[in-house]
Write a structure and sequence with these properties.
- The complex is a heterodimer of chains A (253) and B (448).
- By secondary structure, chain A is an alpha/beta fold.
- Chain A has a single domain, classed as P-loop containing nucleotide triphosphate hydrolases (Rossmann fold), CATH 3.40.50.
- Helices cover 34% and strands 26% of the residues of chain A.
- Chain A has a six-stranded mixed beta sheet with strand order 6-7-8-3-9-10, with helices on both faces. Chain A has a four-stranded antiparallel beta sheet with strand order 2-1-4-5.
- In chain A, helix 6 packs parallel to helix 7.
- Chain B folds into two domains: 277 residues, no CATH class; 61 residues, no CATH class.
- In chain B, strands 1, 4, 5, 7, 8, 10, 12, 14, 16, 18 and 20 form an eleven-stranded mixed beta sheet that branches. Chain B has a ten-stranded mixed beta sheet with strand order 3-2-6-9-11-13-15-17-19-21, with helices on one face.
- In chain B, helix 2 packs antiparallel against helix 6, helix 7 packs across helix 8 and helix 8 crosses helix 10.
- The longest helix of chain B has 17 residues.
- Classes of the chains: A alpha/beta (253), B alpha/beta (448).
- At the A-B interface, helix 2 and helix 3 of A face helix 7, helix 8 and helix 10 of B.
């Protein structure tokens, strides 16, 4: 579904990603781990389509198409979802209405009928319960005054509603206590199926206890230095990132 | 000290002389005196130039250099049926309609008002019951320093007189609709409104100014509002004049103790607009809200100059002005808060936020605080910026195209003030205007 070939990315003239190759098939959950500064977030931003990040070499092919030629909204409409690490607050734009607009834009692309306000609410009711999104939260302006946990749950709630093909979770676990983490993990797991793929970017291994990955890749200094299965994550937890040449960072949570 | 070219004001003085000659013996001497003071003060001051501090960013030379004739009551084919588009979704309320500054009884409708409430043409009151207005007219908006107020005062003829006696709560707003059916040659009108709300009363007044054609004309407006003790007054001024027109307006507000006054100033039209809003909180425990919204594009210019004076203690004031500027438009916000000695426990908040949608749009924002008391809370803030790129990116990442995302954010920006409008039909109308103005606005309408 997704193929990243020899990706090189610079931001403000600084080389961040120095040759990354990755292949993701439908139904797979890939985790990308690495210390601070390894390029994890940059990779996520490039996949989402952030213009400040300059791709100096390499390709990203999504379902046979050149992803780098697609605008962020096109990527969303083609089934890519990004759960942001720092979701921005948008005062004045209600969570409900914004999500309905997004859903309808995506449904239109898929040749489905648009939903009205009433249908939308019944559609999302179940997912609201799953992610513990209250009625008041859904009617508030997007992320405005939301706690850290609420923001992250809201991101996964968006994902549950928009039903993407490829979901990228950028450090979704950061700043979450164990209860919020479980809710988020349940949400993610409920969406796992044979057609849907996930890229779970984490610094700590904790989330991966609940969202068990099929593959783990370790990003260090802009390159994938190791790939393996879920046991690699456990190995990192025990040994830390120092084995890869980085001095201070550890993986234990 | 006049810095203007003499023949700019001559035509006005000639027109004034004609007006004086035409006025009959019924014109009360107090009114004649006001007019004469206005005329002589205008002759002394002349039109302000940008060398005058308060007019630094607004050059009224185009007004000074245009030969405006006095406006006449001319329907120019205006039909009563056209009004339905201008009445906030056919809001059924008492309505005075003015054409080029003159009252039109055929287009007005004043039904269902309690009989002690006066909603009348000022010209009619000045002829039939001048004693009703003498204690108030021209006593609040002073001529001394202000050329345009002087000019308006010199030409006081018609406008609206609204008087709600004490203890009356009106259930419907009162709508003052000013239509310009300007003719080929540029004309000037000097509408004068006087609104007096009695003690313990409640009223809402909407002033709307609409240019029916895209012509050049000059509206020189003064509205005086007196809010009696403990009254609740909700006031709106909607400016939708022709985009070739000049609109200079002074809103003078006077509050007695315990009164609560909110005024909402919306500028959508006009080529050159100056809105002066002066509020004096002259009693303890007053509340005052000055809200404003200006939505500009093309070559429009708006200058909002406000002065909010806390003359007595324990008053609260809030001022929120928001501007959205596109194209080559320019805006000014100059908000002065004055807290007099003795106005302790003043609580005042002022903010001006501006959204620039193009590289050529310009805004100048200057809050000014003059505080002479020592136990007060005064905060102010001003922002001038563009759309939040992170917010835009977030919306796009969820599948919303760039144009719609921008419009959604612009609407959200305006909605903070728009949502403060209490009269539903006015708010709906303003929302509709925004949805029309914004690219893909129909999608925004569905999303909010």
């Amino acid at each position: 579904m997704l193929e990243i070939r020899n990706l090189h990315v610079e931001v403000e003239g600084k080389k961040i990603i120095r040759g990354v190759d990755l292949q993701i098939q439908a139904g797979e959950v890939h985790s990308i781990m690495g210390p601070n500064g390894s390029g994890k977030s940059t990779l996520a931003q490039v996949l989402a389509g952030r213009e400040e990040y300059e791709v100096t070499d390499g390709q990203i092919i999504y379902n046979g198409e050149d992803l780098l030629e697609m605008s962020p909204e096109d990527r969303a409409r083609q089934g890519i979802f990004m759960a942001f690490q720092y979701p921005v607050a948008i005062p004045g734009v209600s969570n409900t209405y914004f999500l309905k607009a997004a859903l309808n834009a995506i449904r239109k692309e898929r040749g489905l009928e648009e939903v009205d306000a009433a249908d939308f609410l019944s559609l999302v009711r179940e997912k609201m319960e799953l992610l513990q999104i209250s009625d008041s939260l859904i009617n508030r302006p997007v992320n405005d005054g939301f706690s850290g946990g609420e923001k992250k749950r809201n991101e996964i709630f968006h994902m549950a509603v928009l039903e993407p093909q490829l979901a990228i979770l950028d450090e979704t676990d950061s700043g979450l206590d164990i209860d919020a983490l479980k809710v988020v993990a349940d949400g993610v797991n409920s969406l796992r199926n044979e057609e849907r793929s996930f890229i779970v970017i984490t610094h700590y291994q904790r989330l991966l206890d609940y969202v068990v990955p099929d593959y783990v890749h370790v990003l260090y200094d802009g390159q994938v230095v190791k790939s393996g299965d879920k046991s690699l994550a456990l190995e990192l937890e025990e040994q830390g990132y120092s084995g890869l040449g980085e001095e201070t960072s550890t993986v234990s949570s | 000290m006049s810095e203007s070219v003499p023949n700019e004001i001559d035509s006005y003085l000639v027109d004034f002389a004609r007006l004086e000659d035409a006025s009959n013996t019924k014109t009360p001497s107090w009114l004649q005196q006001h007019r004469q003071s206005g005329a002589s003060r205008f002759a002394e001051l002349g039109f302000p130039t940008p060398k005058v501090e308060e007019w630094k960013y607004t050059d009224v030379a185009p007004i000074a250099h245009t030969a405006f004739s006095p406006a006449q009551y001319e329907l120019n084919g205006l039909q009563a049926s056209q009004l339905s588009e201008l009445t906030f979704g056919n809001l059924n309320c008492p309505r005075l309609v003015f054409v080029n500054g003159f009252y039109s009884s055929e287009l007005s409708s004043i039904q269902d008002l309690p009989k002690e409430v006066q909603v009348r043409s000022l010209a009619e009151v000045l002829e039939e019951d001048p004693a009703l207005v003498e204690p108030y007219l021209a006593r609040y908006a002073k001529c001394e320093e202000h050329a345009f107020v002087s000019l308006n005062t010199a030409f006081i003829q018609d406008g609206a007189f609204v008087c709600v006696p004490s203890g009356v709560a009106l259930s419907e707003p009162i709508h003052l609709l000013y239509l310009s059916t300007a003719s080929e040659k540029p004309v000037v009108a000097h509408p004068r409104n006087l609104i007096v709300i009695g003690e313990d009363s409640q009223a809402a007044v909407l002033e709307s100014y609409v240019g029916l054609q895209n012509r050049t004309y000059f509206t020189n407006l003064v509205t005086e509002i007196v809010a009696g003790a403990n009254s609740v007054v909700d006031h709106y001024k909607l400016h939708q004049e022709s985009k070739e027109a000049y609109h200079i307006s002074t809103l003078q507000l006077y509050q007695e103790r315990g009164s609560s006054l909110r005024t909402f100033n919306v500028t959508l039209g006009g080529l050159l607009t100056r809105n002066e809003v002066n509020a004096v909180l002259d009693g303890e425990g007053c509340e005052c809200a000055l809200d404003g919204l200006y939505l500009l594009s093309g070559s429009q210019h708006v200058d909002n100059h406000t002065r909010l004076e806390h003359a007595k203690p324990h008053c609260d004031s809030r001022e929120i002005y928001k501007g959205i500027l596109d194209g080559n438009a320019s805006g000014v916000f100059h908000g002065r808060i004055v807290v007099q000695p003795g106005a302790q426990k003043t609580d005042s908040k002022q903010s001006n936020n501006n959204l620039l949608l193009s590289d050529d749009a310009l805004v100048s924002s200057k809050p000014q605080l003059e505080i002479y008391a020592d136990d007060v809370k005064c905060t102010h803030g001003a922002t001038i910026g563009q759309l939040n790129e992170d917010a835009l990116f977030y919306l796009r990442c969820r599948g919303i195209d760039t144009k719609t995302a921008r419009s959604l954010l612009i609407y959200a920006f305006a909605s903070e003030v728009v949502n403060r409008i209490k009269v539903d039909s006015v708010r709906v109308e303003l929302d509709d205007y925004l949805f029309d103005w914004l690219p893909r606005g129909h999608l925004v309408r569905e999303a909010v």
